[in-house]
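ok new one. same drill as before - structure tokens go in, u give me an amino acid for every spot. 308 of them this time. try not to just spam alanines like last time pls lmao
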């Protein structure tokens, strides 16, 4: 009963690392990839070169290798990558041995009412619609905002470095709204631990909400100042300014591969989602509550470990 992982970038690599460490899944992990690569992690698993545009071929390969569950961590950044995931869903549904599918989402709960704020939500809604029409059992993994961003460069992470709201290293902050909007946060490796444990569940909820802690930017700022032992330089952008795309961009990590225009657009988008409450996840029926043996790190503990 093989587990296939599609996409080995930031989130995918974290999930793969966690799977590899679980004795239950040793020799049962397959990486679906366009191009076979070699590194210390990938060399521990079987890599299966696939063409996402050839649905019948992918389905046949899933059958041949006995793939019961497919975990997609494809970076959905365009129509092309969205179509790759939709094709993978079709291939999994067509496979006679594949029963389960986790789509690439790993953020907030994507809903139609948020489309005016972020049109790319359509990609995730399309995947959800395709899964509903399929015979596959599925769950959409929702960890909120990854804590990793506020621990870089001092924490273990596979996520690309970016600054959202507060640059702890430089002691500067550009906070959306009044700083009191609730943001559900989870460390990537904690999310991966819960996800891997959830593979044992007989039934999956539509949304697998996983949260380390609910916080606000103001709380995050207070803890960061306390841990760093200094007051930060802080700017608050009002909701009106944010809705007009007039946002203050906090200092970004060195060497990131984005233009100033892309960073401005990304900051404005995340700020709009923040003040709209998109990152506040439901408290009821969180998946991590079903696994009390997994201790998810709190935000303050995470910050302390990263910056003390």
């Amino acid at each position: 009963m093989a587990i296939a992982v599609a996409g080995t970038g930031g989130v995918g690599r974290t999930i793969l690392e966690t799977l590899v460490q679980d004795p239950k899944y040793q020799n049962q992990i397959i990486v679906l990839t366009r191009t076979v690569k070699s590194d210390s992690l990938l060399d521990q698993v079987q890599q299966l070169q696939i063409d996402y545009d050839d649905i019948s071929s992918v389905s046949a390969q899933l059958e041949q290798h006995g793939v019961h569950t497919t975990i997609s961590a494809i970076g959905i950044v365009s129509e092309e990558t969205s179509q790759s995931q939709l094709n993978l869903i079709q291939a999994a549904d067509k496979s006679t041995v594949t029963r389960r599918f986790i789509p690439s989402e790993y953020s907030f709960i994507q809903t139609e009412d948020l489309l005016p704020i972020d049109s790319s939500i359509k990609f995730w809604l399309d995947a959800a619609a395709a899964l509903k029409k399929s015979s596959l059992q599925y769950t959409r993994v929702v960890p909120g905002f990854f804590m990793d961003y506020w621990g870089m460069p001092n924490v273990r992470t596979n996520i690309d470095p970016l600054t959202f709201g507060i640059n702890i290293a430089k002691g500067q902050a550009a906070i959306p709204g009044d700083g009191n909007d609730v943001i559900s946060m989870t460390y990537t490796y904690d999310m991966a631990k819960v996800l891997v444990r959830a593979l044992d569940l007989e039934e999956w909820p539509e949304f697998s909400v996983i949260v380390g802690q609910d916080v606000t930017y103001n709380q995050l700022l207070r803890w960061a100042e306390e841990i760093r032992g200094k007051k930060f330089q802080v700017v608050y952008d009002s909701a009106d300014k944010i809705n007009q795309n007039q946002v203050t961009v906090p200092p970004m990590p060195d060497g990131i591969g984005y233009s100033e225009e892309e960073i401005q657009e990304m900051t404005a988008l995340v700020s709009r989602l923040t003040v709209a409450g998109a990152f506040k996840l439901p408290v009821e029926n969180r998946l991590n509550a079903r696994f009390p043996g997994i201790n998810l790190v709190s935000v303050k503990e995470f910050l302390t470990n990263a910056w003390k």
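The two ends are 44 Å apart (CA to CA). and btw The mean pLDDT is 96.
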